[in-house]
């Protein structure tokens, strides 16, 4: 079976959007129950709370552990909302099964480790527990799919994915950078798979949660995961990104869920027009890039003939700066310009290396040749 043959059953089988909310961590019984009662009636489909917390650095609050399972059981009894928590080991799985936890989730720091995912999959074999799989901390699509595959091989079918962004080094708008295209690729490769957006871990801060939730709706995510706490500023983990139940309700009220498509003939006609214009532009872009590569190869041939090894990093820097300026004028983000230029540059290097390495016994090693285009 190839990964593309994997079929999934809905975890939720509900109206859209699917809403998962609750505190980052279960801290006290009162905090958990207050949050759950605050969320009751707000359309929450699943109540979340972390009990075992994988923290980046030691010394931070690492979760309340077993007592939290009893609190979650009470949430379900008192509010009727099903509950979910994060599992990272086989023992977590057994403990959660004992306490009737409805849905399990695998965190980003666990998805990254195939040994751990396999251990969880083995512990779940023979059950029909729904599992939500967060993307790994690094943007590795195959690792994410591999985790889904391990659970699928263990016989589980009620599996959903959660996009929670990817860690990075530096100061960015988001705590974990979203890679929207990767989530869209997942939706397209596995049409039956529900894909949820964890806006809290993507944003890391309250003020951009609403716009990010709207973005997730517009990209047709199946639902949202949101961290909610009665007194967010006092939270024992992820204080900056949590909302009160009232703020959560207000955010939801202001979100617009647009239809995926419509039969309206005016809409269809204008979509058709725009799409054919886009197709033409895309074709032109590819032709222009091919033309550019042609010139790059010509430079490669000339340099090879002259046996020139030249390193000109300033050429690339100047090119990058010029394109960044042009990009800024046209409302293209610096991140996009960098990615775009690096992709083109990498392809140029690959193409030139092919030329340089043709019958190069008497030529300098290509490693010395960084031939600028
Ligand atoms: C969480 O959901 O609280 C959590 C730890 O998430 P992640 O694995 O996405 O960091
Ligand atoms: Mn958290």
Polypeptide structure, described:
- The chain has 373 residues and is of the alpha/beta class.
- The chain has two domains: 3-254, TIM Barrel; 265-357, Chorismate mutase (Chorismate Mutase Domain, subunit A, Up-down Bundle), CATH 1.20.59.
- The chain has 13 helices and eight strands.
- An eight-stranded parallel barrel has the order 1-2-3-4-5-6-7-8, surrounded by six helices.
- Helix 3 (90-98) links the parallel strand 3 (83-86) and strand 4 (103-106).
- Helix 1 runs parallel beside helix 2, helix 3 runs parallel beside helix 5 and helix 11 (265-306) packs across helix 13 (334-356).
- Phosphoenolpyruvate (PEP) is lined by residues 24, 50, 107-109, 134, 164, 198, 201.
Layout: helices, strands, pairs:
Elements: E1 18-22, H1 29-39, E2 46-48, H2 67-79, E3 83-86, H3 90-98, E4 103-106, H4 108-111, H5 114-124, E5 131-134, H6 141-153, E6 159-163, H7 180-189, E7 194-198, H8 199-203, H9 209-218, E8 223-227, H10 245-254, H11 265-306, H12 313-329, H13 334-356
Parallel strand pairs: 1-2, 1-8, 2-3, 3-4, 4-5, 5-6, 6-7, 7-8
Helix pairs in contact: 1-2, 3-5, 5-6, 11-13, 12-13
The chain binds phosphoenolpyruvate and manganese (II) ion.
